[in-house]
From TrEMBL:
<protein>
    <submittedName>
        <fullName>BRO1 domain-containing protein</fullName>
    </submittedName>
</protein>
<dbReference type="GO" id="GO:0005768">
    <property type="term" value="C:endosome"/>
</dbReference>
<dbReference type="GO" id="GO:0045022">
    <property type="term" value="P:early endosome to late endosome transport"/>
</dbReference>
<feature type="domain" description="BRO1">
    <location>
        <begin position="1"/>
        <end position="338"/>
    </location>
</feature>
<dbReference type="Pfam" id="PF03097">
    <property type="entry name" value="BRO1"/>
</dbReference>
<dbReference type="GO" id="GO:0032456">
    <property type="term" value="P:endocytic recycling"/>
</dbReference>
<dbReference type="GO" id="GO:0043328">
    <property type="term" value="P:protein transport to vacuole involved in ubiquitin-dependent protein catabolic process via the multivesicular body sorting pathway"/>
</dbReference>
<dbReference type="InterPro" id="IPR004328">
    <property type="entry name" value="BRO1_dom"/>
</dbReference>
<dbReference type="InterPro" id="IPR038499">
    <property type="entry name" value="BRO1_sf"/>
</dbReference>
Length: 338
């Protein structure tokens, strides 16, 4: 088993094998004196790649082996997360789960395993803290929005709360809370994808998903009778917010599909996508005409400026340089723009 760990493959099976080995070592440690200075001490050796040293580090202490295995469990979880393509929602969720799982081993080594006695940079508390912070920051906001959605879902489905005369416990309101919170979790994923400069098609898929989620939120607001439960001003504010977000994320998707068309040298398609993006931001601008929230207005203004600039430039280049036919919306393909 140790020989296999010398040629690690970042997959779930490897993690499972390492965890089984860790459990076996823990059981042996509880039954036999295998720690430093004990009668049955065994030499364990590992290469410290962080130090780029050609020779192995050797300790006659089972705790050293446990620490190294725990470290590699975290490293493999992190590698699995990094290797996820994040091209669909299942892959995105898998990446976030593995980032979360990766943080615990480093935290455990730092706080519980007294690893500083082993001369390895990787076991320095400051390094381990940095690993933990990086891994948790990636998934933190996403996780909190997901966690926030669960209580409302649980109240709605399991706690028979409608018998209490509270607007907050109305199933339609609780469903609204759940949908919006899960949508905001996906917004975190979109933001992370933008920061990471993910592929245009990946960003477009996430943005399209968000557009559809907020459109569904609008439909839920209009069909569930929420307008009879909450104040008219609150209802209109919620409806405007969902409509604006749906249009903005539609624009984001079309802009990135236009960017991909530019890369693919499909200049007619590029202009067509930007034109659809322009329709989205114009619709968003109409929704916020009577809205007093400055942050929402600024978001729409910024998106409009970006889209108008891209559309104007694409039209000019296509008119004077490329002369490509601009396809109609229905010709772009339902998978790309739906």
């Amino acid at each position: 088993m140790l020989q296999q760990f010398g040629r690690l493959i970042a997959d779930v099976e490897t993690v499972c094998q390492m965890k089984r080995y860790y459990a076996q070592l823990t059981m042996m440690k509880s039954r036999f004196p295998m720690e430093e200075g004990d009668p049955l001490k065994i030499p364990f050796s590992w290469l410290d790649k962080a130090m780029d040293m050609p020779n192995s580090t050797v300790y006659e202490d089972v705790n050293f082996e446990l620490t190294c295995i725990m470290f590699n469990i975290g490293a493999v979880h992190a590698a699995i997360a990094v290797n996820e393509m994040r091209s669909d929602l299942d892959s995105i969720k898998s990446a976030f789960t593995h980032f979360q799982c990766a943080a615990f081993p480093f935290q455990h080594i730092r706080d519980k395993m007294n690893a500083t006695k082993y001369s390895s940079v990787d076991f320095e508390p400051s390094i381990l803290t940095w690993y933990v912070n990086v891994l948790l920051s990636i998934k933190s906001a996403f996780t909190h929005f997901q966690c926030a959605a669960f209580p409302f879902q649980h109240i709605r489905d399991k706690m028979n709360a409608t018998k209490y005369s509270s607007v907050d416990f109305e199933p339609s309101i609780l469903t609204w809370y759940v949908n919006v919170l899960l949508a905001q979790a996906q917004e975190c994923i979109l933001e992370k994808s933008l920061i990471d400069h993910r592929k245009n098609t990946v960003i477009a898929k996430i943005a399209i998903y968000l557009r559809d989620v907020y459109m569904n939120c609008c439909e839920h607001l209009e069909s569930s009778g929420i307008s009879d439960i909450v104040s008219s001003s609150k209802y209109r504010e919620w409806l405007r917010t969902c409509n604006v977000k749906a249009e903005l994320y539609g624009a984001v998707a079309m802009v990135h599909l236009g960017e991909q068309a530019d890369i693919d040298k499909k200049m007619g398609h590029r202009l067509a996508y930007y034109q659809i993006a322009s329709e989205h931001v114009k619709a968003a601008a109409k929704f916020i005409e009577k809205d007093k929230r400055e942050s929402l207005r600024q978001a729409v203004v910024f998106a409009t400026d970006v889209v108008v600039a891209k559309e104007t430039n694409a039209k000019k280049e296509n008119d004077f340089i490329y002369h490509e036919r601009v396809p109609k919306r229905e010709e772009l393909g339902i998978i790309e723009v739906c």
